[in-house]
Design a protein that fits this description.
28% strand; six-stranded mixed β-sheet; globular; alpha/beta; 295 residues
């Protein structure tokens, strides 16, 4: 009965700090088979670098997902995709910049892990409640990263194609029977995320939204069996404005003509947001639980 733990957008040094402290505690308590972490804000709030990824790579993370800031460190971010196969970016990124440069990396990641599954009776009955015997099965996982297009026109230096058509293509070309498919949908609009949830309902095991850094209270299992939440929330400073010093954000709202300073709030309470889902041996979701902790 595989368990998947997903951690929302890790923001800068504060995010890395609480992740290193709390993730091992959650892994010990919930014993997830798979851990996935969104890292598009890992390096001082924008992008990834080899040094910041290596700082958290020992935490038993199976896949790193991205979003619109994943390439903000330019060459430093691009080299991360050369070293880490488990680092992915939205599959529907067409190209980067006005010169239409190729997009580094890939938008999905397949891996397998041995997971515990109860022996089945001769008539196909699940004997988990009647017998202490369990066996290990080699479960296939497929993690897909998508990016929304609503309100994202000025948030990504490149072209983003239709995410609905993109997920169709990935499932058709890469999906295999028995897969547990997890989707990180990085998007601004709640309507687009909810629509995507219904669009993939019954075709993937779990879809979570990321990007807004604000956790939503709508974690549930959709009618066809897919676990869903509009946004998992962020991992980092609780007392900033989605991670940034409040005075900097207020300055931008009050004086939009001035240059915005992206300074991460490093004082105050830290928060970590996650979602835990549990699936049956038939890849059906049996439970979704929102996780949150402050330090």
């Amino acid at each position: 009965m595989p368990r998947i733990l997903f951690i929302g957008d890790v923001v800068g040094k504060p995010g890395r700090k609480i992740l290193k402290e709390v993730l091992p505690q959650w892994q010990k308590k919930y014993v997830p088979d798979v851990t996935i972490v969104n890292v598009e804000n890992l390096a001082h709030g924008k992008g990834v670098t080899l040094s910041t990824l290596s700082e958290i790579d020992s935490l038993g993370i199976d896949c790193f997902t991205g979003g619109n800031h994943i390439f903000d460190k330019k060459a430093l971010s691009a080299e991360c995709f050369e070293k880490y196969d488990k680092l992915i970016r939205p599959v529907n990124y067409e190209f980067l910049g006005k010169d239409k440069s190729p997009v580094p990396g890939h938008g999905y990641y397949r891996f397998s892990k041995p997971v515990v599954s109860p022996f089945m009776g001769s008539n196909g009955e699940n004997t988990a409640d009647k017998s202490p015997n369990y066996n290990l099965v080699n479960q296939q996982f497929l993690v897909v990263n998508l990016n929304g297009i609503v309100f994202m026109e000025k948030q990504f230096d490149g072209v983003i194609s239709n995410p609905f058509l993109a997920i169709d293509a990935v499932i058709k070309q890469e999906g295999q029977k028995g897969d547990i498919i997890i989707v990180d949908f990085h998007g601004e609009a709640t309507s687009e995320k909810i629509a995507m949830g219904y669009y993939v309902d019954g075709r993937v095991s779990f879809i979570t939204g990321t990007h807004t850094h604000v956790a939503t209270a709508d974690s549930r299992v959709l009618p066809q069996g897919t676990a869903y939440i509009t946004d998992t929330g962020m991992t980092g400073p609780r007392d900033g404005v989605i991670g940034v010093k409040p005075k900097n954000v207020l300055e931008k709202f009050l004086h939009p003509e001035r240059k915005f300073k992206n300074e991460i709030e490093e004082d105050g309470v830290l928060q970590i947001n996650g979602v835990l889902i549990e699936t049956s041996d038939k890849q059906q979701v049996t439970r979704i639980e929102k996780l949150y902790k402050e330090i």
